[in-house]
């Protein structure tokens, strides 16, 4: 295959992977929904080989699973697994928070301060969706500021697997008022350039998330 064609083929595969991944994270595909290659080819105007490669990559990322004789489907993450993933996040994101506190610039402190105000305003207005967006942005920015590439790659994969549980958690009554002071503590510690306090605040927040996941599951069963 000529080099130019190979590059185009590779780019096509990457684009299809990104599109399907985004659709899964956005909830366009439900847990346990079958991922039929022919349908995906038509939906994304992609070749069968590109779709097959995308599903292979998404399987490696934990978003898709292959069932013998039944093809691929969106993987459903159990509560127990969600708790385990959050416990891993507690360690890795704690590291990122500490590194972010060491590396944060004055401009980034201004950005985090504005994000703090956005979180507070969303809670005051009862804006669950706005709060959820700001919450995700905070965790993303802490990872980016930390400049820990390996940790960021790990956390991005874990985030994809947890996205549905996180959405259910954000919709749970009273959850915003509980998590707001935890997020504020993370921001304040990073902006104070205090690595130990930043790591402790992040770990405390994610320990709270672990407990809340179990509470939400119990409430739904009840």
UniProtKB/TrEMBL annotation:
<protein>
    <submittedName>
        <fullName>Putative GntR family transcriptional regulator</fullName>
    </submittedName>
</protein>
<dbReference type="Pfam" id="PF00392">
    <property type="entry name" value="GntR"/>
</dbReference>
<feature type="domain" description="HTH gntR-type">
    <location>
        <begin position="10"/>
        <end position="77"/>
    </location>
</feature>
<keyword id="KW-0804">Transcription</keyword>
<dbReference type="GO" id="GO:0003700">
    <property type="term" value="F:DNA-binding transcription factor activity"/>
</dbReference>
<dbReference type="Pfam" id="PF07729">
    <property type="entry name" value="FCD"/>
</dbReference>
<dbReference type="InterPro" id="IPR000524">
    <property type="entry name" value="Tscrpt_reg_HTH_GntR"/>
</dbReference>
<dbReference type="InterPro" id="IPR036390">
    <property type="entry name" value="WH_DNA-bd_sf"/>
</dbReference>
<dbReference type="GO" id="GO:0003677">
    <property type="term" value="F:DNA binding"/>
</dbReference>
<keyword id="KW-0238">DNA-binding</keyword>
<dbReference type="InterPro" id="IPR036388">
    <property type="entry name" value="WH-like_DNA-bd_sf"/>
</dbReference>
<dbReference type="InterPro" id="IPR008920">
    <property type="entry name" value="TF_FadR/GntR_C"/>
</dbReference>
<dbReference type="InterPro" id="IPR011711">
    <property type="entry name" value="GntR_C"/>
</dbReference>
<keyword id="KW-0805">Transcription regulation</keyword>
